[in-house]
Amino acid sequence: MNIVVLCGGISTEREVSLWTGENVCNALRSKGHNAILMDVFLGREDITTDNAFINIKSISEELEIIKTAGKNIEEVKKNRKDFFGDNVIEICKAADITFMALHGENGENGKVQAAFDLFGIKYTGSDCLSSAMAMNKSVTRMIFNSNDIPMAGAAIATINHGYNSCEELGLSYPVVIKPNCGGSSIGVFYADNDEEFKTNILEAFKFENELIIEDRIIGKEFSCAVIQYKALPVIEIIPKTGTYDFKNKYSAGAADEICPANISEELTKKIQKIAEAAAEALGINTYCRVDILTDEKDNCYCLEVNTLPGMTRTSLLPQEAAAEGIDFPSLCEKLIEISLNARY
Questions:
Q1: Are residues 22 and 94 in the same domain?
Q2: What letter would DSSP give residue 123?
Q3: How does pLDDT run across 244-288, given as a tens digit for each residue?
Q4: What pLDDT is recorded for position 248?
Q5: Which residues contact residue 113 at a Cβ distance below 8 angstroms, ignoring those fewer than 6 apart?
Q6: Could you tell me if 265 and 205 lie in one domain?
Q7: Fewer CB in 10 Å around end: N or C, the chain?
Q8: Closest-CA residue to 175 (of 149, 205, 200)
Q9: pLDDT value for 37
Q10: Are residues 112 and 194 in the same domain?
Q11: Whole-number Å distance between alpha carbons of 50 and 99
């Protein structure tokens, strides 16, 4: 197949997206596909629809093109109104499918998916509506509450209101402060008292104008991927120091990731059932990853649903697939197959 692996963009998760794109592109090429890397925002001036899938450059060359163009990304943002870069739409239309290796804003929020639907471009992952609902944590909460999916207590904070305490929001310490539409733990802060709350909420508002303030659940963290509404083996995440923040997520050896999780069969099935219910509530009939916390009594709390989970070889979804005997290149092909079957 001729495949565009779409990555990059302008979100806070741009670098993570490039890692995913590199790994997916390598994997698809190893399976014999004509896969190319494209930055959704910067595009590619060096290729056209006539030569995009002929005489393909090496991954390192394509990455260098993207990273070189990305050095001036702030200037590009200032001087351009449209989002899609050079030749992106044209080459994605010419491809058999676009593999979505995007993360964060304008990648997971459904906007690119909606545009692709209008252009008739085939793509992997969830559709525009499911993506938009899952990306917005306040919308996700409303949907989960109506479907009896357990979540921690929470409130919404907006930038045009001054906050001195979480008690003003009907919560009590400790709390977690997070951007409403963020990911990869970027912009996430914690507060155990009023002083920390006042300081950290201002820091979090630098990332977004709307925040979710949640009761902090002290316990264990799990993740469970769901493919076509069927849960994969549960993975437990144990940071060696601190919390499972951006640094611990993407630094080699910073956290132990145990798959299948060393937990009881009863708790395993409980987590898998919640993950499947979360995917169904949001209508994600392709694939996603659901993050879940448990407290000391094994009560489960759904954190969020990732519609385009990380896809490096050591990311959580590939680890769960490996536990079922699916290697990384085969997983990439499988995600393409189920996306095509779901919508086209």
A1: yes
A2: B
A3: 444 544 445 667 999 999 999 999 999 999 999 999 999 999 999
A4: 42
A5: 100, 123, 125, 126, 127, 128, 131
A6: no
A7: C
A8: 200
A9: 97
A10: no
A11: 20
Q: Give Cβ neighbours of residue 183 (< 8 Å, ≥ 6 apart).
A: 13, 103, 104, 108, 306
Identify whether 305 is part of a domain: yes
CB 233 within 8 A of CB 324: yes
Share of the chain above pLDDT 70, in %: 95
Q: Which is nearest to 225 in space by CA: 128, 281, 282, 291?
A: 291
- Rounded distance between C-alpha atoms, residue 250 and residue 317, angstroms: 14
Q: Are residues 31 and 105 in the same domain?
A: yes
**Enclosing domain of residue 139:** 134-149+218-343
Phi–psi pair at 201, nearest 5 degrees: -70, -35
Q: Which residue has the tokens 């979480």?
A: 166
Q: What digits encode the pLDDT tens for the residues 142-194?
A: 999 999 999 999 999 998 778 889 999 999 999 999 988 865 567 899 999 99
| Structure token pair of residue 197 | 């709350």
Contact 77, 39 (CB under 8 A): no
One domain, residues 112 and 38:
yes
- The total number of structural domains in the chain stands at 3
CATH value at residue 104: 3.40.50.20
80 part of a folded domain: yes
Non-local CB neighbours of 285 within 8 Å, separated by 6+ positions: 126, 228, 229, 279, 342
144 plus 292 within the same structural domain: yes
Query: What's the rounded Cα separation, in Å, for the pair 72 and 271?
Result: 44
* 3-class secondary-structure state, position 235: strand
Same domain, 50 and 78: yes
Tokens of 52: 């995009």
Q: Residue 128 falls within a domain, yes or no?
A: no
- Average confidence score pLDDT of the chain: 92
